[in-house]
Amino acid sequence: MALGTATASYDMRFDSGRICLDLVATTHPEERLDSAARLRNWITGSGLVPPGTPLTAVDTAWLASFRELRGHVAQLVRGELDGRPADAALARVNAVALGTPPAPWAVRADDGSLRRRLHAPPGCPELLSVVARDAVDLLTDPVAGASLRQCEGDNCPIVYLDTSRGRRRRWCSSEVCGNRERVARHRRRAALARA
């Protein structure tokens, strides 16, 4: 499945580098998945489904399932970063990954180009399977696993994949936490200059 874009959509963030990490990021700075409509927006914005995919079945049961998987993925990723294996979370993510992901089809668009569509409207277990498989792929890939970073911003819990040259990225987003840090640094320098 395609990864989300680096820009926010529907006030969600899609800049962590992986769909599973983008799901984990929906808790910061506040709960972003607080309704079925917001979950539908996240599913579409993350690239989990192709544009135009009907998501009429998304309801509060889907919301509960996505939030549950989010909690397990967060425990697993943070456990790996901190050297504290979260085997109960690993078992749950593995179980969800066993599901069958939605089947993609190539269809001809009006202009003659091929576009990706899903064979049938996706169900919740199929989409959860895609997110769980993304987490499994991320954490079992030594290169990707070594690129996992915790944002250095004050009180920012976001985990992201550092794909920057030299692997020196410090913040989940240069525009969010990076800007805050630069402003704080400027204020400290200005205060020292006045003193």
From TrEMBL:
One Pfam family in the UniProt entry: ABATE
**Origin, by domain of life?**
Bacteria
* InterPro entries recorded: ABATE (IPR010852), ABATE_dom_sf (IPR023286), Znf_CGNR (IPR021005)
* TM regions (residue ranges): none
Residue span(s) of domain Zinc finger CGNR = 148-189
PANTHER family hit by this protein: BLL6575 PROTEIN (PTHR35525:SF3)
- Name recorded for this polypeptide: ABATE domain-containing protein
At the highest ranks, the source species' classification is: Bacteria, Bacillati, Actinomycetota, Actinomycetes, Kitasatosporales
